[in-house]
Prior knowledge:
The protein is an alpha/beta fold. The protein has helices at 11-20, 22-35, 112-120, 137-147, 163-182; strands spanning 42-57, 70-74, 79-92, 99-107, 127-129, 150-152.
Amino acid sequence: xxxxxxKLGSYAGFSQRLNQLSEAFRSFSASLLEEFLHTDCYENQxxxxxxxxxxxxxxxxxxxxxxxxxxxxxxxxxxYYYGVKLHTLAFRRVGRIPxxxxxxxxxxxxxxxxxxxxxxxxxxxxxxxxxKIYNNLDFFTxxxxxxxxxxxxxIKGVKGQYQEIKKIDKAxxxxxxxxxxxxxxx
Length: 186
């Protein structure tokens, strides 16, 4: 069909021009997120999560977007993969899907805690709700003192802890972990 469209550029040229617009898309999406912020968002409560975007399994050699992707592990799916991770910081909305505040894409091997430290740790007066990957007591104690921001995560078991202590703490830890997972303000 090139006869019908003699001035149509190549796919490679189109991709190159599209890639040059990445900063424009970043700015455009940020302004959209700000403009359409819902009134029922709790701007002092943020949810953190990430998900893998898999380009191929970890058993194969990566051939797609090699400059962006690398090998990572998804513990939820118990799977090694090549790809990227989509990280989201979102405002809490009661009974509704959270509203995204910021979205980032990183290579698959980048840890969620690293993304938080580099991108979102400067936010003040926040209650963050995340999963167990954000377990770093020293960092979040310092964050609470300096920025008045608190990270709420489910309780992670302590290796080598006596069974008697585990049994005593189990009920309280389970209740707290359930509350954090359901994002009930404590």
